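pasting for ref
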Amino acid sequence: MYSSRTVPDRSFHARLQRYRTAGRLLPYVFRHIVSKPFRSSAQAREAAADLRSTEFRRPAHDMYCEMFLNGYRQATASPVDRSTGLALVLFMVFIFTFDQEFERARKLGAPPDYQALIDAPRVADVWNALRGYLRAFGRDQEILGHVFSTFARNYDDYRCCVAQAVRRGDFATTVGLAELDSGLTLQTIYEIIRLFNGHQYRPECARQFFALGMAGKFLDDIRDMVDDVAAGDPNLLYALTLANDQDQAALAAALRDGTRITMWWWSRNCRATLETYISHMYRYYDQVTDSELRLSLDVCVALLHSRRYWRRPIHRRPATLP
């Protein structure tokens, strides 16, 4: 746990915690860059043989998905088949491409139904790889059936909530959107692990995954705020800033002047908004009680406190992972 939950913290304790997080991350980096355990099986090679998605090549997906598997195992005390890992990776890449296609369609007009988006060539490419991989283990009908039922129950609400969040820009509506997007995505990750391994439903574990998605979204939106505002996309931090006239004016001036807006900028110029925002994030963070699940969040917190991280170019992505 970091000694400060509000602002960039340079204390010895905070630095030590970040070094510990980096130390815990290193084995994941080594495994998924060097040995690539999720991609080495015959089923994995066959499923991905024709996959053209550049997003699929990013080892970060494999690292985070292993954290999810380890967190699930820790939370449920249940064995997990390592083959589950690539199913999670493919699902995350599917969600990434689906969100990109949704945003493209939204900005051209009203987005179509979810089946039309799944059938779009770039999305279908990943969907077919996921379906083929799950079929190799006899899990395609159960898991894809769950994914389809999740879309059927929530997609229309999600589409409506996106439109409301863009139009209103208020914090409560944007949080509701995050619940239908990031929270539900990570809860679906829980369901895929459970169904792939034939386990019973554990509501307490499902809640941890939902909270993980929400906390990750809050953390992502700190870094993504400038790009989201420029693109006209909903953003939690921006929505909260609009509720404080003084901070809203400071942010508007910084955006107009092209100021690089980092954690340190927020701490100096919009401290009240930052403190409130981080407290919201930690409400979800504290619900993630298993250390392996928390690791993905701790990595993101450590990155946000690194000046080097803020000097890197921002690569936009859907807010479904830390």
